[in-house]
Give the backbone structure.
Amino acid sequence: MEKLSRYTLMFIAIFVLSIVVPQLYWTAFEVPAKTPFVQYSCVNHDFLIYRPGEKKWQDTKGNEYTRDEYEQRLPLFFFKQLYTSGTLPDSVNNQPLDMRSLSREKSFFRLKTADIDAPKNNLFPMFESRSGRAMLEWPDDFFRITWRIEFIDAATNKILEEKSQMFSAAMFHNGFVFPAKNIWGISSPKKSVDEGYFIVDSRDQLFHLKMVKGKPFVRKIDLPAGLKFRHIDCVDFKNRTFYAYLFSEKNEIYILTQDDYKLMRWPVNGYNPEITDIKIYGDLYNYTVIMESPGEVKAVVLDKNYQYVDSYTETWPVREDTKVGKIFTSVFPAQISLTSDTSKFVSFYFNLSGGFYWLVLNFFLVILQLIWLYWKKKIFRNHVADLVIVSVCGVFGMIAVHLFPNKFYK
Amino acid sequence: MLLSVFYKEWLKTRWFVILYTAMGIVAIGYIFMALKHSFNFSGTRSIWSTILFQGNQFYKIFKFIPLAGGIIVAIAQYLPEANDKRIKLTFHLPLGENKALMVMQAFGALSLLVAFFVFLGLIYFLGLIYFPVQMVWDIVLTVLPWSVSGLSAYSIVSFIILEPRWPFRFLYSIVGGLFLSFHFVHAGTACYGPALSGLFLMSLLLITAPLSSGYRFRKG
């Protein structure tokens, strides 16, 4: 039993060390990779790259610019700055610039991997889409979807039967098959108008649900056969061109156009929701999709008809390929993290070190341990398990073995 | 014999266990009283929305209560035994040394589990008065790792008290403290789901921890 106790404690120590020691190592030695900021210039018809680490502004051909020159080549992105400094051009590509249309067409969207891999809400507010008020207000009730849709009054914590039945019936008559697999919408009154929710039912059908003058508005959206969505993010852009960005399980990017519910696939490849953060900048002429993955940034530019214009990819060594990373993978066999940049969940994120150098160190540590056993005149067969632990867990195992001495055989 | 050891442990720790449980119940009562107060002042829909969409953990004063419970019960149970090496008397019982320690551990762990079940039950059923079951489950999922920390803290502190050598006590306190900090990582509501079973399993394994230091304690 004492042995079981000792191995339990060693396991806990190895677990703690494999979280804390790598964390300390990276805190002390990690040099952050500064992701270049890539934008498409409607003046140069080329990508412009700002490198925050080196404080350089360049184009893809290596030409360098001053900050002012860089901003003047991105007039749609920096129009407020250019307007303030009095350098905003009157026209771009022979088209006059109008502040109102610039502002209307400018949009920004961001989706991080951790936004997708996160706990899901089960209760949502159903805003009144046409309240006649200038500002949206939180409703008094929140809805959930189980075998039907249920509205729960927050003040009494009771189900509002009449409203629940009215909405459930409307959804049922439009072909909704309860329960819902996913519900997406902007659950905040901080938006210009309310467009309700986009809901995937138990048969992977997509529906639009909102409340108009207290009544349900339900619309089934036609989808190509087999199309399933991993994530939908509703947007509230001033130009009201589309309701949402939709990300399919095959990592395709779609938009759903406003009012006519046309699903349009964007010609953008290379998005991996498990490792890629995505940013989409919209302006008067283009949509620029920026995909940032570890060691890579990829930018794809589309015109306003969502046709491919140009793309740019830049790579750099990932953390493990840097000098500091190589030392890490030579010393530590693995690392565990409780949190991750790609998830909001707390879990045991296990990363085995690449390469085999850490095996060499583990072997060296086993030799050291053998010398120590010989020097202390220990009986070898009583320490076989410890040697196995050192050979597998390396530095962490070595520390654990000596932190909890094997003294049961005296 | 088992029941006699249980009774001995009960006599030793009863006031600590009872007072600790009572304090936990009072804290939970305060949490829901404060919630009712917020409902009256800010309105229910506002509080619901902050809980659902802004990560409001109105119950966060509960965070370190299970941890404190684990430490209190371990100190109440093992400090008198470690002083003047009185635990050696227990080791001389015909029960066997390891079995005697495991019975003591079982008593401490069970008394803590009973207290935690009372706390979780109160949070669940009081929560259902104000919120739908989905929200209450999220609250329970959030407080569960804090509760598991109490069980782990109990075993770690017991183990450190029984450890006879101060340098090792110091090192074990560092490792134990770091392990306990893993239960309190800054995370949103219900984010601990994937780690919960692992942490609970480790807290169960840790119940055997004092056997190791107890062995060294009795061997001097």
